[in-house]
Amino acid sequence: MEAVFALCRPSNALRRLALIILLSLPIFALAAVGALAAQDHVQGRRAALVIGNSAYVNLPKLPNSVNDAKRIGEVLRNANFEVTIGSDLTKAGLEKTVREFLQTLNDGDVALFYYSGHAVQVADQNFIIPVDANLSSAYDLEVESYNVTSLLDYMRATSGLQILVLDACRDNPFRNEYYYLGDSKVDVGGKQGLASLTPKQGSLIVYSTAPDQVAYDGGGDLSPFAGALADNLLSPNKEVREMLTLVRNAVMQRTGGRQVPWDVSSLTSQFYFVSAQEVLMLGESVTEVRVSPDATRVRLDIQPPIASKGLQLTASFEKLPKAGMLLLDDKTIQPNQPIDAQRMGDIVYVSDPGQKSVELLPYKIESNTGQKANGAVAIVFDPAIPQQPDTSLQVASNDDGESVTKAVPINLTLNADVGTGFKPVPALELGAGGRPTGWFRLEQRDPSAQVAVGDELLMLGDLVKAEDLPKVKIRPAIHRSNEEAQVVLTPAVVVPESKPVVIKVEAQVNACDELAAQPLDIQAVTEGVLPNDIDVPKAEAACRKAVADFPEIPRFKFQYGRVLYAKGEYQTALKMLREALDGGHVRAGQIVARLYQLGAGVELAPEKAIPPLEAAARRGDPYAQHTLGKALLEGNGVRRDVRRGLELLQKAVESGHTYALNQLGGEYLSGARVPKDVERAYVIFEKSAERGDVWGAVNLGLMYRDGVFVKQDKQRAYQLFEEANRNLHPYAATLMAALDKQEGRKDEAGLLALYRESAARGDGWGAFYAAEIVSTQPSLAKDPDEAIRLYGLAVARKSGKASEGAKARLKAVPAERLARESQKALVRMGAQGIEVDGKLGPRVRAAAAEILGRKPPSGMLDLYADLVQQEWIASTPRLDML
């Protein structure tokens, strides 16, 4: 279900019904109601992404957008959202911030996105514009913006309810009359404002102004819409449509009717941003005050009622005393006169002269929402109590007027790893400072911690029964780790024995996350490290422990699988990755899918790659979107669908996956599946290279090498190839060698070193050229078998003519020699009981089946190529580079 303005708590009607039942129970039953068993899932978890872009470099600046975002972020934190906030974001910063937001959505209930800044509509879609966007080229929109619909789709896939608020309908920032979007050329002349999106069932989308109209920044610190939204969003127990009506009226008033907020709704249920508790009860139904018969002024000391925060309470006495009067601030209280319920303890009884026994004074408490509670105060005149000096109206205080006696709090410390869910406060620790009693109020909650009791989130001001304090659990925010947060629960009624509970939350990132998370993983909690940067010994120990400590969290299994792969324990790594996939970790699915496409450690079955890729792409995983998009373009394991393939690549580009940029550029450069557009390819490759992507550097280098669209510049091309090679591009070294050979800069030994470098990274051409040199100059070989191994790798890598040439060379090798090389490969990979005799009997084929994890090919040459490929994979190359 989708909604844009979300309900995370029960409806008012349900809560009131529950309170009627609650208040009708005897006091001993209240503890049972509050002691319901905690569930693993906490209802109503909320996450929000709030972005404000003001300081545009190439477009008109927007003075208030950052202020708008900051204010809305503060309000949403008070509404129990874990807020990811971004200000003045570049395209790279936008990608990172969106990714951090998606990381907070896992298993959440409510997702909200608020954006203030430049945004534009193209082809009935809305695009967020980062502050470094230029939009000067017709090709810039697709690489410099972010599609709002994409983000809404990811929110829908990872949460139960979605909220979309766009305060972004400023003046048209376009600098061209048309832009390219996918395979379409779109005219944008005269466009302003945003397009109205059609909501799905159960959704609500809110705009700061009507479709195709312009919103105003305003003359104050906030835009008219942001100010009105901030003023009304926290209104307790107001259904969202009622709240939006208040916002709409406020904006119209502030803009003289020139701006009218707009919403598109297909809601099927009510939603409340703040569904506040409405609990009212008395700590003591009868307050007894025993005094001397000679007492003339008596402070009643009636405890204030226990009530949910936000309720406005009044008290009234149904009748006056028989022998005396009631005073508040020396003013007489009349029957049924409403007074502030919090002042009940300040009421003074003034006695008439004469003998008295008991004064029974009934009173009632009423809230502004209709709750009622009845109580009474009994003044007992006891002859056994001697006349005392009248000190009942005095309160000991220090020089600042504060009470001298302060309750010593019960201090607790909760240690938690971020991204591991809610962690309960240990019940035994609660007894260290004395067992609390009565009711407690959530008085303070740091924005970096969400608090729950059982399966329900607590809002500030909510009440908790003391018996339920051991059921309190806390979830530290993912992206405010390594910071101390504090949660404070204070007694609802302050009595001498009452003590507040102060919980210090010390959150940290698990060592497995720090050492083995993968970049761009939308279910990670850190930015991640590349495969070649993993510190294997440390990461292995940390991730093994994390998997043992948190077996229910698939993220740790995925990261442990990465470490095992880096260590070379391939089959164990594959097992761990599959367990992570089964647990719902989508990046694990992308990697397993890639292995099926490569036939690496599993059967070559590209059709089996499609289901996990589809699941991961829906969640917004850019790696999966790139891999699936490429498969759809090529018809690899799935029916070819060029349009959808391009759409998926574009989504990956939005999220910062530069490989997708290069795939798009390659499509437009070749023109095989889309209309050829060399200028568009150049713009895309240049953007990729600017982001430090190795493929972008190589593709741009090829255009300079060949003089395609740009003036030929082989020196510039070589520099780009060198840069890519330093960053482990699989065949940049082969391209360098080709230029070196052409210019006569290196001898055969120098060229061989470059070819070997590319071959080790999986480049079939590098393997073929290296084999050719070693075959003709055996003195340069590492060993007598190197040329055959390199030819085998060139065949296995399926590199077109390079593979065909290598296959021709291997066909000339005697069968017995090739069989011996296959046996040597098996022995190197740990096969037992293999005799290198050139005979491929049942034992050899059984060993090959175990090593390959499938039935081996029957042909000698194919078997050898598969074994060489498996041995290459066991060397842990960067498969993500291919």
Automatic annotation (TrEMBL):
Q: Which Gene3D superfamilies match?
A: 3.40.50.1460, Tetratricopeptide repeat domain
Q: Does the keyword Hydrolase apply?
A: no
The protein's superkingdom reads Bacteria
Segment forming the signal sequence? 1-31
In this protein, which residues make up the domain named Caspase family p20?
A: 44-173
Q: Name one GO biological process term.
A: proteolysis
The keyword Isomerase belongs to this UniProt entry's keyword annotation: no
Q: Which InterPro entries match?
A: Caspase-like_dom_sf, Caspase-related_regulators, Pept_C14_caspase, Pept_C14_p20, Sel1-like, TPR-like_helical_dom_sf
- Provide the GO MF annotations for this entry: cysteine-type endopeptidase activity
- Alphabetized UniProt keyword annotations: Signal
Cite the PANTHER family for this sequence. MUCOSA ASSOCIATED LYMPHOID TISSUE LYMPHOMA TRANSLOCATION PROTEIN 1/PARACASPASE (PTHR22576), MUCOSA-ASSOCIATED LYMPHOID TISSUE LYMPHOMA TRANSLOCATION PROTEIN 1 (PTHR22576:SF37)
Q: Supply the name of the protein.
A: Caspase family protein
Question: Which organism is the protein's source?
Answer: Pseudaminobacter soli
